Amino acid sequence: MVQPDKFPFLSEAEFGFASRLFVEKFEEVGWNPQAGDWERLGLRREREQNYILIRRNLGLSDTSKESEAIPATLSLHGELDIATKDQDDLDHEALQRSYVSPAKPYVEYHILLSPTYRVPVLYFFLRKTSLKSQADLDAVYKFLVPPQLKTEVLNTGPIGGITMGEHPIFDMPAFHVHPCNTAAAMEDLGGAQGISLQNYLQIWIGLVGGHVGLSLPLSSP
Prior knowledge:
Layout: H1 12-29, E1 40-46, E2 49-57, E3 70-71, H2 92-97, E4 99-100, E5 106-113, E6 120-127, H3 137-143, H4 150-154, E7 162-166, E8 173-177, H5 182-190, H6 197-208
Antiparallel strand pairs: 1-2, 2-5, 3-4, 5-6, 6-8, 7-8
Helix pairs in contact: 1-6
């Protein structure tokens, strides 16, 4: 097991390594969208920044005017992305798995490394829901935050509060879980032994993700 040099903080190289291992691990075991698991998982690099993309169906009927089928693997820039596979390696089965029809309300999560706090930070977008605006925080609490955690999230809690800000890669409004308390919480979990890069992101999702509807697949390794 490889340990971060300055746990709980990560360098860009350590985050990239942990991200690649995370995506490869779940690509091997797979997941089941019908059981409420993820619909899409991908490792991407934009503007010299690595990030993990996870998409999850909200299990709701389409509340927007857009009811046509859309590719489940279209990024914010409309680019096709099948997990970590190269475009030349895409096979027919992979292409079949990459589309969902008809389109349903979903949440798209982006896991990036915060350059200030040196820990992962979770950005997310609600799509095809009845948002009043992209800054509709009420919709986040309605669709994503579990009822038993709402008070904790509203009072910031050990993970930091939910904030609307500019996405550091796409220059557009996005919700994110503020990482101000992440390092201390990860340090408490890791104790004197710390947490390896192989397990870092799985534990981090367990700590942060559940507050906004992101959990590991039921078939997680």
